[in-house]
Amino acid sequence: MKFTVSGAVTVLFVLVVVSVMLARIYETGPIIWIKRAARRRRAMEGADRRALVARIQQLLPQANDDNVLFSLHRESSASGGSKVTVLSSTYYYTVFVADGDSFWVIPMSYDRHARSYQLGTPVPFNAGIVKGVRLTGKRGKTLTFHFLLGDQTQPLYMDLTPFYFRKNSFYPFDLMQEAACRKARQLAEAMALAACGLTPEDLEAGRCKDECSEYGLYAACTGFLGVMFAAAPFLPVVLICFGISLILFGVMLSKKRPPKTSAVVVLAEAVISYMIMR
Fold it and tell me: Residues 35, 166: contact at Cβ < 8 Å?
């Protein structure tokens, strides 16, 4: 297949557009990776972390660097009609303090324009009011505990993220909190066992199922990129895209979660790409 300048320009344009979309919609991709590397040093210096812990200690004297957990949970949603779809995100800011067999929950409001935050009144909860617990997320990045408390229908989200950085204006801190994540997870697992009879292995099995569902979605999205690059046409990138899909399927199989619907979608995308480039 002959390589052309117009094809190279098309590939570059698609890469730029995809990078921007990944950063804005999914908060991942090359732009976010560059920010992560740039912000790590400031997070390791600990200025934001020390300031946050000091603010929490004014409300709870027992708070310290090992038990104060900042949680920022992001929920995405789509709205609109058949012609226009609007994607939006809701950010939940919360601080958790692990204290014995209980958590203190401190709501936080953040003004992203003034880059300032306010803390609410601490409220405790323990295993006695926990009605359900679920674990989602990825190891090494962010694990999320979903607590269903009392008669509430909306879960309380606790994100365990060891390294927060300012991905965009909605993120207030650059901070490290590995010790706090370990302590919060230990207490959350103890609550799940005491309240719901769920062992850490049970929570992990549910998390793995959700994670593999995401891998299937990513594989389908990567296959779609392969179709886009097939129109360039640029065979090497097309092969890379479908190779990534196969790798994701391999990860799913290694976790004993064979792909089903996603495999059919990727196969259809591969056929379309072949027909375009033939």
Answer: yes
In sign, the C-alpha dihedral spanning 165, 171, 176, 179 is negative
**Cβ contact 197:83 at 8 Å:** no
**Total domains, the chain:** 2
* pLDDT at res. 86: 54
Q: Cβ–Cβ contacts within 10 Å for residue 180, how many?
A: 24
Of 143, 175, 198, the domain-final residue: 198
Q: Is the dihedral of CA 73, 30, 47, 161 positive or negative?
A: positive
Positions in the chain whose pLDDT score sits under 50: 1
Domain identity same for 185 and 224: no
Q: Structure tokens of 212?
A: 């593999």
Predicted TM-score (pTM) of this structure: 0.78
Domain-terminating residue out of 145, 179, 198 = 198
Q: Answer yes or no: do 157 and 251 share one domain.
A: no
- Residue 79 lies in domain: 24-198
- Closest Cα to residue 242, out of 265, 258, 260, 261? 265
